[in-house]
């Protein structure tokens, strides 16, 4: 048990800061749509095929100003978001008129906070570090529960430590951690699995990673260049005719050398905010290459698709967002205090007291 306690403390001292960043940024990001204060942000969502088709044509027609992707307005945010690459982007109203534009992500707090939460502002390397921290966090919850059991009779719930002494911080960490353990497991497990898909094998079965990869893989399309002018309205009309009950969520230009334009839609039974119902169009002439109905995906893939909505509180309304806010704040508090108590708040060394007998002997020796 002593070795387990030592490993828990040392690992927490190193990983705690990353977990604190993830927790605090996550608690803010679950309310992201609510604090985008721009004109038309509160507009009702429009899903008229005619209006969506016209707006898409307006945004994508000119190759010189064409964004790499468009994310359409949702029920909580009445703005379309354009991505021009390298952090540049814009918000437009649902008719395609620009409301706000920025040259880099640093101009929009919701964008750099998202990058910090998902990539630690360092791309794929940061995402890997986050995944490792998520796995470590799960181990902290498990080992912390084991260590708490031997001191369960002294349990006392407090939102904050009684004082900022190391013993008080350790006790608060232990007791608050056991209360929040279910929420922390939910946040950390879903987050780690989204980064490291093989973790899904632990709760969806050994074949889950391969099944998910195969199901979500795009079709093989022609490796063609993007044409200067395409029938963007026609693509929207085809997508809506194929899935008339689905909500149009995004349109993306080809990535790398795929040669495929991607339209994502969300059917009523889907939890994923942008859906997994997808259509692919050839980049040279706009012909339909393939389509995937999220309703036809296996139970394993459907279960995997709910991880992000659970992690980011994209379901359950305000009540669930507040629950995940608590989870993030607790993770941030536990991680911060772990680092503080481990690296900075060292127990003070007791001052040595002089031995009275030694003092008496010294007096005798120096007395003439």
Structural class, by secondary structure, is alpha+beta
Envelope shape: elongated
Distance between the termini: 59 Å
Radius of gyration: 27 Å
Q: Trace the largest sheet across and list its strands.
A: 4-3-2-1-5-6-7-8
Sheet having the most strands: 8 strands, antiparallel
| Average residue-wise pLDDT | 91
What is the share of helical residues? 40-55%
H/E element sequence: HHEEEEHHHHHHEEEEHHHH
Question: Strand content of the residues, in percent?
Answer: 5-15%
Number of strands: 8
Continuous helix count: 12
Low-confidence stretches: none
Summarize the structure.
By secondary structure, the chain is an alpha+beta fold. 50% of the residues lie in helices and 12% in strands. The radius of gyration is 27 Å and the shape is elongated.
């Amino acid at each position: 048990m002593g070795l387990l306690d030592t490993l828990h403390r040392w690992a927490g001292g190193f990983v705690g800061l990353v977990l604190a960043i993830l927790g605090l940024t996550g608690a803010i990001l679950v309310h992201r749509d609510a604090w985008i204060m721009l004109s038309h942000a509160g507009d009702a969502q429009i899903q008229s095929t005619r209006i969506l088709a016209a707006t898409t044509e307006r945004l994508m027609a000119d190759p010189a100003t064409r964004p790499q992707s468009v994310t359409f307005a949702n029920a909580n945010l009445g703005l379309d978001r354009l991505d021009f690459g390298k952090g540049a982007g814009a918000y437009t109203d649902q008719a395609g008129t620009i409301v706000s534009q920025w040259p880099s992500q640093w101009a929009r707090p919701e964008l750099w906070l998202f990058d910090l939460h998902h990539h630690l502002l360092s791309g794929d390397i940061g995402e890997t570090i986050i995944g490792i921290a998520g796995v470590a966090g799960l181990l902290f919850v498990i080992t912390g529960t084991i260590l708490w059991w031997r001191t369960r009779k002294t349990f006392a719930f407090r939102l904050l430590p009684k004082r900022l002494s190391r013993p008080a911080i350790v006790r608060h960490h232990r007791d608050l951690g056991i209360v929040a353990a279910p929420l922390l497991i939910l946040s950390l497990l879903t987050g780690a699995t989204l980064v490291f898909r093989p973790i899904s094998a632990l709760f969806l079965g050994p074949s889950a990673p391969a099944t998910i990869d195969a199901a979500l893989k795009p079709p093989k399309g022609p490796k063609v260049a993007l044409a200067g002018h395409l029938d963007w309205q026609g693509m929207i009309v085809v997508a809506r005719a194929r899935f008339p009950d689905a909500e149009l969520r995004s349109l993306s230009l080809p990535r790398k050398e795929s040669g495929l334009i991607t339209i994502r839609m969300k059917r009523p039974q889907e939890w994923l905010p942008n859906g997994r119902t997808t259509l692919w169009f050839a980049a040279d002439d706009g012909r339909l290459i393939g389509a995937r109905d999220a309703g036809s995906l296996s139970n394993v893939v459907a279960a995997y698709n709910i991880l992000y909505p659970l992690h980011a509180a994209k379901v359950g309304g305000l009540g669930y967002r507040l629950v995940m806010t608590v989870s993030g704040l607790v993770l941030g508090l536990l991680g911060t205090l772990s680092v503080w108590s481990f690296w900075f708040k060292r127990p003070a060394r007791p001052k040595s007291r002089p031995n009275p007998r030694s003092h008496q002997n010294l007096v005798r020796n120096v007395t003439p």
